[in-house]
């Protein structure tokens, strides 16, 4: 695959994920959009093996979230649990990002200068 083809596929996936996030509640959308933007920016200059894994995982995310937000269910369940085996693959920076994301989800007002609820 040429470099131009790869860039095109990355852009398509990135835009598709952001479009899918429009189906999320406002707070989840804001958090998700920012996370996606940061992750795609962070992975601009990775080696081909990392780029392949990155695209696979974000494609899985897109497909999973797509199924979850299109279910005709009033109580929308979004997300899935990460297996311990999957988390074991994370490097220290990724584990720290996951912990920060977890904190932001559990207490979204704390990082915004608001008081915890």
UniProtKB/TrEMBL annotation:
Q: Which InterPro entries match?
A: SDHAF3/Sdh7
Q: Where are the transmembrane segments?
A: none
Entry GO terms, CC: mitochondrial intermembrane space; mitochondrial matrix
Q: What is its main location?
A: mitochondrion
Q: Which GO terms describe its biological process?
A: mitochondrial respiratory chain complex II assembly; succinate metabolic process
The function of this protein is:
Plays an essential role in the assembly of succinate dehydrogenase (SDH), an enzyme complex (also referred to as respiratory complex II) that is a component of both the tricarboxylic acid (TCA) cycle and the mitochondrial electron transport chain, and which couples the oxidation of succinate to fumarate with the reduction of ubiquinone (coenzyme Q) to ubiquinol. Promotes maturation of the iron-sulfur protein subunit of the SDH catalytic dimer, protecting it from the deleterious effects of oxidants. May act together with SDHAF1.
Task: Cite the record's note on assembly.
Answer: Interacts with the iron-sulfur protein subunit within the SDH catalytic dimer.
Q: What is this protein called?
A: Succinate dehydrogenase assembly factor 3
């Amino acid at each position: 695959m040429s470099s131009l083809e790869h860039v095109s596929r990355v852009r398509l996936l990135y835009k598709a994920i952001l479009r899918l996030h429009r189906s999320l509640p406002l707070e989840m959308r804001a958090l998700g959009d920012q996370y996606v933007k940061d992750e795609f920016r962070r992975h601009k200059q990775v080696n081909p093996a990392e780029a392949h894994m990155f695209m696979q995982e974000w494609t899985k995310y897109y497909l999973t979230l797509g199924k979850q937000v299109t279910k005709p269910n009033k109580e929308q369940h979004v997300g899935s649990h990460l297996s311990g085996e999957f988390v074991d693959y994370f490097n220290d920076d990724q584990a720290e990002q996951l912990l920060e994301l977890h904190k932001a989800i559990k207490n979204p007002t704390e990082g915004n200068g608001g008081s915890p609820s």
